[in-house]
Fold this sequence. Notes:
alpha/beta; 13% strand; globular
Amino acid sequence: xxxxxxxxxxxxxxxxxxxxxxxxDQQAASLKSKDLLGIEYLDADEIQLILDTAHHFxxxxxxxxxxxxxxxxxxxxxxxxxxSTRTRTSFEIAAKRLSADTQTISASTSSMVKxxxxxxxARNIEAMYPDLLIIRHAFPGAAHMLARTCSAAVINAxxxxxxxxxxxxxxxxxxxxxxxxIEGLRVVICGDIAHSRVARSNIHCLRKLGATVVVxxxxxxxxxxxxxxxxxxxxxxxxxxxxADVVMTLRIQLERGGKLSFPSTREYxxxxxxxxxxxxxxxxxxxxxxxxxxxxxxxxxSDVADGPASVILExxxxxxxxxxxxxxxxxxxxxxxxxxxTAA
Length: 344
């Protein structure tokens, strides 16, 4: 029996892109840092690299067999010390579709319930030589602390009210898919700005890509120095929505003190909930986004969340592509080449 081309070529080496088709200039690309800790630390070119790489990864999810050997032989540890559905599942599926070995550890199943510190937990895990550590933690700076301690690449999957970089990246990819470019767009972020890591990461990301970012929230949910981030702030939703290309609604972070910031959810919805009447103030081709989980009838009406302007489920799909791209850029061919160059 004649050998197939695949058999003649032999098995793909760890980190080989295999049947992953990327442009030549992206096949050896990598980020400047070994870690992804926040959008604040990326420049516009790095953000565009991630988005361009994610665009090509989207095709894999359309294949009958949704797996490539790109990260075969690599190990990925998910450290999720906060509840998560979309982010945790997305990272797990992303790693598996790239053929990496994965393990997920939650707070309730780790030795931290016995009093072990986060650093000791990380050091013990690193003694098993993982390639990537993905962490979600309630305390801001937890990912940074891990990155300073561990030689493995660290990805911030959300640290308190600080940053959630991959969420901002998937939001940017979704906006770019619909609008072609982010530069010059008016993007409105409304809701619990004060406690939202999604808002902070999106402000950094969208402004670096040339968008005008507007935030709207009750004074009790608006950081007092938010204008220092380069945004325009409104304490009413209607004027913020005028001429908007994109509207992103945020969940009230009840677990971070948001429940003390308004009298009732009914009053909040009447004033700041995104309804069809309020959305009519935006442009005709506006898109509506939400990072999830949604509280229907609080920050967004069901007929808006499920309406023709909504791209919420597309955000979830794009989240998988973005996280595959980030894993590839931090542990794939480009990262391996960078490590060799550094060693030399």
